[in-house]
Amino acid sequence: GDVLAHTDREDEAFEMYRHATDISGNPEGLLRAARVALEHDRDVLASGFLDRALDRTPDLAAALALYGDVMVARRNPTSARDYYTRALAGSGGLADRARVEAALAAMH
User: How far is it, in rounded angstroms, from Cα 30 to Cα 39?
Assistant: First the structure.
């Protein structure tokens, strides 16, 4: 999926990410798909991937943080703040904690 995403074949990448998640049960493929969708201004598609990830693990910090990014793209700061706050308290670790904290601080 990553190779396809970096060669401007996003739709094929999305399919690979979905397939990887279906096989492994690991939500990382959905998170990667959501990141690629956001990079290409496809927030509706990104939210679909994140909904699926959160259906499996409702407090998954990385998915909640990305959903905050979706809300920023949609110009909905109230929802973005909520998702970022939930991400900081979520499970599974948050590799970009500093970015999420900075985004929250900038909203106040």
Answer: 14
